[in-house]
Design a protein that fits this description.
- The protein is α/β, with parallel strands linked by helices.
- The chain folds into 2 domains: 162 residues, HUPs (Rossmann fold, 3-Layer(aba) Sandwich); 109 residues, Glutamyl-tRNA Synthetase, Domain 3 (Glutamyl-tRNA Synthetase, domain 3).
- Helices cover 33% and strands 14% of the residues.
- It contains 11 helices and 11 strands.
- The strands form 5 sheets. The protein has a 3-stranded antiparallel beta sheet with strand order 3-4-7. Strands 1-2 form a two-stranded parallel ribbon.
- Helix 1 packs across helix 9, helix 6 packs across helix 7 and helix 9 crosses helix 11.
- The longest helix is centred in the first third of the chain and has 15 residues.
Length: 329
C-alpha cells in the first residue's frame, strides 16, 4: 500500500459521462480506479456525469453500465443500486448545485461574466494553460453595477465565475508533488454557463464532497482541474480527496482515443468476440501489473495492484491491437 493512502475508509468513484460509448482509454482509467479501491477493501461509487444537456443521452448511460459490468467492474452504490449518497446522476442534483452556488455567492467569491463566446475565443492569443484553454484575464471582475446593467440591457446573459488566486500544492499518487498557480489552471473559471448549465468543475467537486469520495483516480489530462476543485472543497468546508492522475492511453499515432476510434469501443470489441478477460489482462500488462501478458478478470488482478508499478508516461496501443486482443481471447 502506498504510504499516502489510508485503507480505513477508501471510497472511489467510476464517473463516466454518457456522451458516447466507452473505449479502451476509458476502460484503462476505470480499471485502475477499481483496482485501487478494491485492493484496499474500499467501496466503489458509480456516478453518471450527465450535466451537459447538449451531449448526454440516456441510451449511452445504459450501455456504459453494461460495458462496465461486462469488463468485470462492479460498484456498491449507483443509479441502479441506490445508496446513502444519492442521487448518483448529476441531472438529478441540480437543486444541490443551486444551493452551493448561493453559498459561494454569499461568500463573495463569485461574479457575473458577460464575455461572449466570440470574445472568449479571441483570447486564444493569450497564454494558454494546457488543456484548459486561454487564461481568463478577469475582464468582468471589476465591472461596476452600471456596467453590468448596461450589458444585461443589451441582452447579454451572464455566466458566473469563481474568483481565486494563489498556488495550490498537493501530492499525486502518480504525478508526485504538484504545484500549480491559479493562472496555470486558466484563472477565474465558470461555475455556471450563461444558459444556466452548471460547470463540470462545480458539479464534480460537490458530488465528490457529498458522496464522501476519498480517492479520485482519473486521466492526467484532468490534472489542471484539480486545484480548482480543491479550492471548492475548501470553500465548502470539505476534506480534499487523495488524487491519482494516471497516464493517458494513446493510439499508435500518439493521439487520444476518441469517437473516430470506434473499433476501440468496448461494445465493438464485445461484438467481435473479444473476451473481457483479454481486455482487462492486456490493460493490466500495459500498466505493468502482470509478470507477463495474459487474460485475467479484474478480481484476479487485485493481488498485483501497486501504484509503484503504474507507468508515469503515456502508454501506446500498437497498430496490431485487435490481433493481440483476439489472441488473448
Amino acid at each position: 500500500m502506498h504510504p499516502f493512502v489510508s485503507s480505513l475508509s477508501v471510497r472511489g468513484r467510476l464517473a463516466p459521462s454518457p456522451t458516447g460509448h466507452l473505449h479502451l482509454g476509458n476502460a484503462w482509467s476505470f480499471l485502475l480506479c477499481w483496482l485501487a479501491v478494491r485492493s484496499q477493501g474500499g467501496r466503489v461509487v458509480l456516478r453518471l456525469e450527465d450535466i451537459d444537456p447538449d451531449r448526454a443521452r440516456p441510451t449511452y448511460a445504459s450501455t456504459i453500465m453494461r460495458d462496465l459490468s461486462w469488463l468485470g467492474l462492479d460498484w456498491d452504490e449507483g443509479p441502479d443500486l441506490g445508496g446513502p449518497s444519492g442521487p448518483y446522476t448529476q441531472s438529478e442534483r441540480l437543486d444541490r448545485y443551486a444551493e452551493v452556488m448561493e453559498i459561494l455567492s454569499r461568500q463573495g467569491r463569485t461574479y457575473p461574466c458577460y464575455c461572449t463566446r466570440r470574445e472568449l475565443k479571441s483570447m486564444a492569443s493569450a497564454p494558454h494553460a494546457g488543456d484548459v484553454g486561454p487564461i481568463y484575464p478577469g475582464t468582468c471582475l471589476h465591472l461596476s453595477a452600471a456596467q453590468r446593467a448596461e450589458r444585461e440591457a443589451a441582452g447579454r446573459a451572464p455566466a458566473v465565475r469563481l474568483h481565486g488566486g494563489g498556488t495550490t500544492s498537493f501530492y499525486d499518487l502518480i504525478q508526485g508533488a504538484v504545484r500549480l498557480g491559479w493562472e496555470e489552471c486558466g484563472g477565474d473559471f465558470p461555475l455556471q454557463r450563461s444558459d444556466g448549465v452548471i460547470s463540470y468543475q462545480l458539479a464534480v467537486a460537490v458530488d465528490d464532497l457529498d458522496q464522501g469520495i476519498s480517492l479520485v483516480v482519473r486521466g492526467a489530462d484532468i490534472l489542471s482541474s484539480t486545484p480548482r476543485q480543491m479550492v471548492l472543497f475548501r470553500l465548502l468546508g470539505g476534506t480534499v480527496p487523495q488524487y491519482a492522475h494516471v497516464p493517458l492511453v494513446l493510439d499508435h499515432h500518439g493521439e487520444r482515443l476518441a469517437k473516430r476510434h470506434q473499433s476501440m469501443e468496448l461494445r465493438a470489441l464485445r461484438e467481435q468476440g473479444i473476451s473481457p478477460r483479454a481486455v482487462a489482462g492486456y490493460l493490466a500488462d500495459l500498466a505493468g501489473l502482470l509478470p507477463q501478458a495474459g487474460p485475467a478478470t479484474p478480481a484476479e488482478l487485485l493481488p498485483f495492484f501497486s501504484w509503484e508499478r503504474i507507468p508515469r508516461h503515456p502508454v501506446f496501443l500498437p497498430p496490431q491491437i485487435m490481433t493481440l486482443l483476439a489472441d488473448l481471447s
